[in-house]
Amino acid sequence: MEYWDIYDKNKQLTGRKMKRNDWCLKEGEYHLTVLGVIRRPDGKYLITRRVLTKAWAPGWWEVSGGAAQAGESSEEAVRREVLEETGLDVNGCVGGYMFTYHRENPLEGDNYFVDVYRFEKDFKEEDLHLQTEETAGYKIATADEIKALADKGIFLHYDSIKRVFEE
């Protein structure tokens, strides 16, 4: 069973945990998620397409990410998520933490912080090993191509993270 740490409104650990996807958070309680944007030296980004079996936003485009597990730091979580979902190891890469945003869904009990990271990594397509349970393909895209997907309404969280695609 996977557990997540519970944070307060100031993003401080409360010492309590929740079961993964339990959605029991009260007002002022949050869990932590991370997003890891991979930028190649040519200025293009790795994006992945969500599998069609996802309950939420199936087939949409996104960047790698997920929830931090209990006891795991934000940086540990983003490195793990990127490796699990893409096969790329971002340890030692230029870049790192960029900013945090948060969402509050009190009726659903799902409030969360999102730590956004960007790493620069020179990789070839054959270096990718996608997690088939999560991803249904990938694209090496320019910032303009990503914005075009967002304009079509099929890029997850774009309005919250668009500044990560700026130079």
Automatic annotation (TrEMBL):
One Gene Ontology MF term: hydrolase activity
Listed cofactors: Mg(2+)
Residues passing through the membrane, by range: none
Lineage: superkingdom: Bacteria
Domain Nudix hydrolase, first and last residues per copy: 29-163
tRNA processing is among the record's keywords: no
Keywords: Hydrolase
Family stated for the protein in its record: Belongs to the Nudix hydrolase family.
Name the UniProt record assigns to this protein: NUDIX hydrolase
